[in-house]
């Protein structure tokens, strides 16, 4: 193919090879296979896939599988670019990589995810550990390995906080693990699942303090809203998620969390040639704006790919609909609880606990990679997820 022909190709650039971005790349590659007029490029900071769902394992020194993104993409025709995205120019339609390379696009898919919101209280950015990426998790692992005694404070009693506190307490029984948060752990679960979760944390020796608010992180302590100070040899910050300032700086419409506001086809409402997927997207459903999960993130990637394919074939994209179905929570390696949910994420009566829940959780956690491999051969296999019925219907939808 000569340079002139290359210039006429429709360039789709996908930013981020996490759960959502990789789903978008593999699905789109399958849909446009054989087309010479479309080029798909995937940009990511590392060649190794980050299993965010296992970062609390990495943070406690456990080995996780090395999953290679370029290897997975072999044979798909997707061009992989390793690099750090530093800017998006939505006017000239180009992405800047590592400050010195530029990638032009016709269609952009933004899937750079989010990080722990350490800007929420003073000191968290400087003194707290996070599970925002592998390197952050490894820093905590190094710290924990050096501690023979002392206190680890996990700030944030959401599910990442619960899974992390349980994992740390199980791996390091000599450490005192304190879980702090505004809400009871498992607050969104039914009473049975919540009680089971709380019992497991008690059994592992995690001290739970709900109804408290951390207002400051110090080098060796945290300060609570009532003035109390708790000594801490390590603080893990899990409360809240923050999205990179890149979309806002590019002039894209974002919500209060910095997420790109999308229409029903997952296009930016201000820049329709930009799709937003995964944790970085503010996607409205009948029940409200979706919150970041892998279970919802992968379908957003697949749907964006389907929308782009339809648009390239001169068709209208379809509205995206997604309903939640479960909340699987690990409680160390030997225990777990799975809360089944309605499409709006409210708890059903049914839940799994103990060994069955452990197997369920592991099956779910391990499933994305084989799903991508399957999608390579059979794109349609990745295009199924619960659409949520009346829970996700938006009245104004056409
Ligand atoms: C400990 C933990 C446990 C979790 N457990 C669950 C669970 O059980 N179930 C569930 O549904 N969800 C879970 N989640 C949430 C889930 O991990 C996220 O919702 C999911 O990862 C979002 O996918 P994503 O593709 O949007 O972003 P990510 O998976 O975060 O992928 C983003 C990618 O973009 C790359 N990137 C970011 N910025 C740049 C840049 N500037 N330049 C280049 N590359 C960049 C990152 O390196 C990464 O590869 C958990 C999260 C954590 C931290």
Automatic annotation (TrEMBL):
Coiled coil regions, renumbered to chain = none
Q: Describe the family membership recorded for this protein in Swiss-Prot or TrEMBL.
A: Belongs to the NADH dehydrogenase family.
**Membrane spanning segments where?**
12-30
Respond yes or no to whether keyword Transcription is given for this record.
no
Q: Which Gene3D superfamilies match?
A: 3.50.50.100
One Pfam family here: Pyr_redox_2
Q: Is Transmembrane helix tagged as a keyword?
A: yes
UniProt organism field: Streptacidiphilus pinicola
**Keyword annotations:** FAD, Flavoprotein, Membrane, Oxidoreductase, Transmembrane, Transmembrane helix
| Domain (FAD/NAD(P)-binding): residue spans on this chain | 11-286
Q: What is this protein called?
A: FAD-dependent oxidoreductase
| Named cofactor requirement(s) | FAD
For molecular function, the Gene Ontology terms on record are: NAD(P)H dehydrogenase (quinone) activity
> Which processes are annotated in GO (biological process)?
aerobic electron transport chain
């Amino acid at each position: 193919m000569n340079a002139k022909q290359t210039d006429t190709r429709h360039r789709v650039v996908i930013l981020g090879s996490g759960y959502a971005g990789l789903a978008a790349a593999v699905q789109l590659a399958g849909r446009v296979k054989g087309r010479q007029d479309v080029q798909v490029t995937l940009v990511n900071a590392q060649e190794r896939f980050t299993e965010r769902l296992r970062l609390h394992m990495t943070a406690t020194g456990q080995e996780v599988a090395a999953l290679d993104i370029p290897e997975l993409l072999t044979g798909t025709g997707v061009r992989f670019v390793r690099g750090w995205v530093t800017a998006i120019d939505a006017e000239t339609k180009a992405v800047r990589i590592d400050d010195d390379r530029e990638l032009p696009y016709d269609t952009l898919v933004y899937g750079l995810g989010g990080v722990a919101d350490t800007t929420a209280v003073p000191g968290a950015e400087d003194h707290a550990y996070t599970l925002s990426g592998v390197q952050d998790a490894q820093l905590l692992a190094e710290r924990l390995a050096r501690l023979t005694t002392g206190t680890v404070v996990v700030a944030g009693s959401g599910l990442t906080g619960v899974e992390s506190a349980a994992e740390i307490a199980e791996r390091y029984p000599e450490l005192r693990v304190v879980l702090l948060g505004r809400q009871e752990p498992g607050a969104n679960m039914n009473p049975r699942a919540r009680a089971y979760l709380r019992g497991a944390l008690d059994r592992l020796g995690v001290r739970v303090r709900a109804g408290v608010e951390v207002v400051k992180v110090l080098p060796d302590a945290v300060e609570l809203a009532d003035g109390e100070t708790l000594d801490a040899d390590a603080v893990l910050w899990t409360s809240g998620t923050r999205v990179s300032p890149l979309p806002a700086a590019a002039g894209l419409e974002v919500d209060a969390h910095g997420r790109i506001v999308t229409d029903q086809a997952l296009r930016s409402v201000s820049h329709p040639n930009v799709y937003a997927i995964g944790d970085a997207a503010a996607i409205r459903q009948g029940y409200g704006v979706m919150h970041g999960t892998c279970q919802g993130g992968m379908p957003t990637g697949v749907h964006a790919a389907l929308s782009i394919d339809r648009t390239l074939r001169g068709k209208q994209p379809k509205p995206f609909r997604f309903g939640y179905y479960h909340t699987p929570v690990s409680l160390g390696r030997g225990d777990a609880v799975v809360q089944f949910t309605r499409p709006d994420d409210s708890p059903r009566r049914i839940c799994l606990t103990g060994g069955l829940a452990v197997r369920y959780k592991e099956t779910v956690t391990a499933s994305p990679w084989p799903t991508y491999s399957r999608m390579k051969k059979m794109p349609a296999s990745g295009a199924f997820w619960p659409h949520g019925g009346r829970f996700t219907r938006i009245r104004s939808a056409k």
